[in-house]
Amino acid sequence: MVVLVGTMGAGKTTVGRMVADALGVGFLDTDHVVEERAGKPVSEIFVDDGEQAFRTMEHEAVASALAGHDGVLALGGGAVLDPATRELLRGHRVVFLRVGLSDAASRVGLGVSRPLLLGNVRGRIKQLLDERTPIYTSVATDTVETDGRAAQEVADEVRALVQDGRHGA
Ligand code: S3P
User: Pocket residues for ligand 1 (CB within 6 Å)?
Assistant: First the structure.
């Protein structure tokens, strides 16, 4: 099992699928788990139920995925804000996909499906990067740089880390 963390635009879903394909294992994304359980997209959960309700569902999705999924798991960008979720990650191989402001903003585009970015995509990403980078670093066993790199190149590096088996459980 390898867990991918990082902010929106880090490429967790794209890279995660590539790593899973290369290793011949399953891929799971906690946003999708939450969406399936709620029966609606993340953006609608934020509007209808609020961010706190989403965070509760997200924690449950991480907990069940860590317990039952043996493959590549991508966490939503804000999942690590919950101390209980950070605790669950202990002992797992956690790869932080690092991205800077420019690349994150261009990958996210207008960010219409990402409620936290509405209004000012670049300004919000900057704020989230400043607030969260120390948290991603604290939960990560490895950090992989994504700026200016193709998803495949990043995926190859993550796969090598997993196959190398030096870190994590
Ligand atoms: C969020 C990131 C999103 C999603 C939600 C909130 C965040 O996931 O969980 O919109 O707080 O950073 P991605 O990082 O997969 O876009």
Answer: 8, 12, 31, 42, 76-78, 114-116
Picking from 24, 14, 13, the residue whose alpha carbon sits closest to that of residue 151 is: 14
Report residue 92 as tokens.
Answer: 């797992």
Quote the ligand 1 centre to 114 CA distance (angstroms): 7
* CA–CA distance, 153 with 15 (Å, rounded to integer): 9
- pLDDT tens by residue, 113-155: 888 888 888 999 999 999 999 999 999 999 999 999 999 999 9
42 Cα–ligand 1 center, Å = 8
> Which residues in 66-162 belong to E strands, given as ranges?
72-74, 93-98, 142-145
Angle between helix 151-164 and 12-23 (nearest 10): 50
- Answer for the pair 17, 73: CB distance below 8 angstroms, yes or no: no
Q: Is residue 77 packed enough to be buried (19+ CB in 10 Å), middle (13-18) or exposed (0-12)? A: buried
Ligand 1 pocket: which of 7, 31, 62, 80 to mutate (most atoms within 8 A of CB): 31
This model's pTM is above 0.85: yes
